[in-house]
Amino acid sequence: MTTIAATRTVRLDVPIDVGLTWSALRHGRGDPTYRHVAGSIWRTSRMATGPVTVQVTQEADRVVRAEAWGAGADELLDGLPAALGTKDDVTGFSTAHPAIADAVRRFPGLRIPRTGRVMESLIPAVLEQRVVGLDAQASWRRLVQKHGEPAPGPAAEQLRVVPDAATWAALPVWEWHRAGVDPQRYRTAQACARVGPQLERVAAAGDLAATYRALRSVPGVGIWTAAETGSRALGDADAVPFGDFHLAHLVGVGLVGRRLHTDDEVAEVLEPYRPQRFRAVRLLALSPLVRMERRGPRAPRVNHHRI
Question: What gap in Å lies between CA 43 and CA 169, rounded to an integer?
Answer without folding.
Answer: 23
